[in-house]
Amino acid sequence: MDASLPVSSPTEPLPDWITCHADDETYEWARSGWQRAATIPGAWFDADKADRIVERWPRIFRLTDDRFAGIAFKLLPWQEITVRLLVGWKKPVEIIDPETHSQTIAYVRIFRRLDLWIPRKNGKSEFLAALAVLFFVLEKIQGAQAYVFARDEDQALIPFNKMVQIIEAADGLKEDRHGNERITINARSIYLRETSSLCQLLTGSTKGKHGKSPTVTVGDEIHEWKSTEIADTLRQGTGARLQPIELFASTAGRRENRVGYEWFQESLSIMRGEIDDPSTLVVYFGIDDEDDWTEETIWRKANPSLGLTPTLDYLRTEFRKAKGRPAQEAIFQCYHLNRWVDQIGGWLPRSKWQACTADAKSWPRLWEENKGRRAFLAFDVSSVNDLTALVAILPPDADNDKWVVIPRFWVPEETLERRAQEDKRVNWNAWVKSGALETTPGDFVDLNFLMRAIFDAGAHFAVERIGYDPWGTSKLIGDLQHEGLDAELLVDMRQTTANLSAPTKEFERLVFAQDIEHGGHPVLGWMAGHCSVRFDVNLNYVPDKKHSLDKIDGVVATVMGIGLAMTDEEPEPASPWDDPDYTLVKQS
């Protein structure tokens, strides 16, 4: 609160620290923030206070990580504008004086909420934490309360620990000049002795969040939130505070996450004046839909700290890794250019798939040519009248430098004609004639055919593991064991992101590196051609049955088989200290 008289008028032109970016569309948010605040009756900009805080900032705060550790926190232009707008704009509000109970006027900050949307590695966490320390510690409000949260406690620890590091690195914050403790820091809380103020780390659960009276709220990574309930609950508790502030920050994420994407859409609407909310300052850096994300000049539009962090060399390296790989391209655009992503269709380009084999008609020979090799089986059982897949995955060995995938597919015979009529793009009958697709009698898949194929593969290869999804397979698993299959060979592989993410990325890598041989199998190639992938909140991705254009059972089974092989591999020790057989002194 500030009861001093206004020192500037909203009728004044934009200040130099904004007009110097007049030709830069990247700073639309800065012009918007100034102009929206200026429309409030009685609003004024306290330039002296803004100047004072910006001038003192690098004398108070120090950076905390890596090559920056211990260096004075000198604000970058985008950070300086944000600080000036947050602390400078004020408005008059009528209040009841708690001592006299008479009506009076107080001048309070206009901006009560910050929505910061910026790509990774632009100093978001450090800046967010420093802002939190500014408003929680340096404003010296008696009995202040601050709360830090994110999707879960582990994620909330990132900004919370940054606050701790900034406090500990700052001169004269944690202790006074005589060495007396001013701030007590615990694993989940920060206590200010002088003002009896408490900052707490919150879990991602919505339980126990009522009854609080926040002065400062810090919410990180909005794009991963499951709901806005914590933010909403904390906001409802700010009614007794004259100038509470909410500090929210995030990168882009999946459009599928409606919570994060709708918050982002609201932020843009506020920035553009489509929603009347002058109390929210939106700071946004990202590329537009029409921008060519492969152009380095566009990268600067999304990364205002480029050169300092991230470095241009880092972005170039990540770009080269991603280029030509649709899923990786999406991740690059999301994390580094702040572009929201959907599920990815055309995940495995046809040209890359075809390049994996020198002979696109060699698939019938792979079975005999690889007899006796070490193998991992995986099967994906469909609904009763759909495709079922069994895939044998053969890792490289001393005589073979490529992975080999050998699939088998079944459909009910009585559904074949209907399939041929409904989808003329696919020559189902030709696949059956060639042996690429097998039929089972009747109008549903007879899993006895799959069971016999599993035993055939067991007799033909050195099978080490067999992966399956337990959904719809309990009878088959029982029958396999009843017929003598060793139960230890069977591995429950639910088709979750946790199980399939790593092998999905490895399968993708093998295809792009041409390190997998599929012999041009037409059914598997058809599935690979229209397979989409879906992302989780951390942008891990797996094959997406729901949004792929058609069946992808063979791709899913392939990924499962690769996952089994990856789990079975014994990694080499990263260093002698990781080798249990390593000793520093030879035994005599």
From TrEMBL:
Molecular-function GO terms, alphabetical: endonuclease activity
Domain Terminase large subunit-like endonuclease: 275-569
Domain Terminase large subunit-like ATPase: 108-258
Region annotated Disordered, chain positions: 568-588
Name of the protein in its database record: Terminase large subunit
Originating organism: Martelella lutilitoris
